[in-house]
Structure to design on (175 residues):
């Protein structure tokens, strides 16, 4: 994700996540919607529902929230902040690959577990907390429908990520 770079190069977004976004940001969010739609369809076709329902639910929320940003050309900055979460996905996916390759008892897996947990706290938990705080502090500047969607999104994503964090912690560190 190019989000940290975008905030560095366009600090005005820090003050306005609703209407301000740099060139290319809208395209980045639109491509992200396409990725989530493709991944959603792939999971529907190739995985059992009981194995993937949480991720399908997650993707549905992201598709709706990012889709609104893309269609309205607003909240693109907020969507960019949300894309910071995806930095951690690199290590979550690497963890999955290492598990499938039966490399659980290797230094590589152990290192990835540590980096995964660290990036999880920084890029998932802290980002979601910051987004929830921003939404609450800016509730008077956000139309009720958008506020409802954003609040619902945060209310869904935050517990899902806390539960996943607990599962990772239990699986990789509390055995």
């Amino acid at each position: 994700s190019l989000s940290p770079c975008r905030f560095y190069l366009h600090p005005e977004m820090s003050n306005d996540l609703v209407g301000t976004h740099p060139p290319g940001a809208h395209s980045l969010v639109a491509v992200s919607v396409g990725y989530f739609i493709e991944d959603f369809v792939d999971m529907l076709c190739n995985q059992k529902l009981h194995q993937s329902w949480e991720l399908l639910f997650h993707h549905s929320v992201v598709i709706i929230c990012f889709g609104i940003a893309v269609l309205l050309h607003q909240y693109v900055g907020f969507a960019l902040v949300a894309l910071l979460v995806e930095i951690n996905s690199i290590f979550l996916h690497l963890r999955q690959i290492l598990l499938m390759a039966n490399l659980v008892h290797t230094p590589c897996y152990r290192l990835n577990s540590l980096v995964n947990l660290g990036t999880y706290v920084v890029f998932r938990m802290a980002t979601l907390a910051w987004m929830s705080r921003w939404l609450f502090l800016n509730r008077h500047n956000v139309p009720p429908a958008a506020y409802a969607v954003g609040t619902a999104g945060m209310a869904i994503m935050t517990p899902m990520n806390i539960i996943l964090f607990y599962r990772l912690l239990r699986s990789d560190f509390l055995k």
Observations:
- Residues 25-173 form one domain.
- Residues 107-137 form the longest helix (31 residues).
- The chain has one domain: 25-173.
